[in-house]
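Recall the central idea of this unit: under ordinary conditions, the amino acid sequence of a chain determines the structure it adopts. In this exercise we apply that idea directly, starting from the sequence alone.
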Amino acid sequence: MIAKRLVLVVLCLGIALVASPPADPTTHRVLAAGFCDGVSQIPQGECQALVALYNSTNGSGWTNHSGWLATDTPCSWYGVTCDAGHVTWLSLSINQLTGSIPPELGNLARLDHLYLNNNQLTGSIPPELSNLANLQVLGLFSNHLSGGIPPELGNLANLRDLWLGNNQLSGGIPPELGNLANLQYLWLDNNHLSGGIPPELSNLAKLQVLDLYSNQLSGGIPPELGNLANLKNLYLSANQLSGALPHSLIALHLDTFWFNNTDLCEPGDAAFQIWLSTIPDLHRTSVICQWTWLPLVLKAG
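Accordingly, the structure predicted from this sequence is:
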């Protein structure tokens, strides 16, 4: 009798398995699309933005996806912080995100910190991120992002930190970044950026760090950079920059100045050389611009 029952159970299971359709790899994505209908903790648009991020970056494969699409309280999900019913902080650094950044993130209207750094993100930076009017920190460094830097990022009036280093970004530095009046840190190092350094960057009155290290930038150094009164760290090394360092730089009080591995030369006059000697962390070419001191020698002769 027991054996008969076991046979019936096995047969029923077999029928169920045969009758069930094969697993659809998009099923989870489809379910997620309607997930926000049951969420009241944050606005629907913000919920949909989080779901889009999960779907676009293989959320099920994240190192930590605790709570994501498992509860209807997004403010309790790993890496999500809310205030007054809105998502204000999104931190998913070092979390095995793969895929692309979805444009829907631009719908997180109250977001002020976004950290997606140290992942395996690919594709371009969505210009829709420029809709994040409250954003103070944008951390996308150490990924595999490509394409150009969206000039629309120049609309982020409250941005304080822009971290785009260690990617595969190409094209020029948008002069629109000079509109970021509150920017203090601009990290564009270790990319494939080309063209010249926009003189508009001299409008960044609060800038403390300008890191352009290891790109393919060319041309001279805009003398307008001497207007960056708060600049403490200037990294220009490992580029194709050339010409004389502008004498206007001596107005800066730098702690760090790297311009080695370039074709830049140093003015040979005493004032400029004394200024260089006051910089604690100096990586230089030690090449004197011949045309800056030769006329003085001829005149003295």
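The mean pLDDT is 89.
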